[in-house]
Amino acid sequence: MQLTINVPDNLPQVRITQRIKELEQSLQDEATFFSTALTLKKAKQEKLALLTKIMQDCAALPTLDERSADEILGYSDSPEGLWGHE
Question: For residue 11, is pLDDT > 90?
Fold first, then answer.
C-alpha cells in the first residue's frame, strides 16, 4: 500500500525519517494486535466446538442410575442437607 505524506519544506529530514519510522511501527503493532486477536478468536471457537462435542457425547450416554444427585450424594438423608447427621 502506498502512502503519500505532505510535509513542510523546512522540516528537518531527520525528523521526517523519525516520524516515518514511528508510523511504520504503529502500523506493525496494529497488524500484530489484529493478528493475535484473530488467532485467539479461532482458538476460542475451537475450544467451544470441542466442549460442545463432549457435551453432546455425554448427553448421548445412557442413564445408569435414575436417582437424583442429592440422593446419590446422600444429601436427601439429612435434614441439614449434609452427609450424615453431624
Answer: no
* Annotated domain spans of the chain: 13-61
8-12-17-23 Cα dihedral, nearest 10 degrees: -50
Range 10-32 average pLDDT: 90
Rounded CA-CA distance 10/28 in Å is: 28
Say how far apart CA 73 and CA 67 lie, in whole Å.
10
The whole-angstrom separation of Cα 40 and Cα 55 is: 22
Mean model confidence pLDDT for the chain: 86
Task: Report whether pLDDT(68) > 60.
Answer: yes
What DSSP string describes 44-62?
A: HHHHHHHHHHHHHHHHTSP
C-alpha 85/C-alpha 77 separation (Å) is: 8
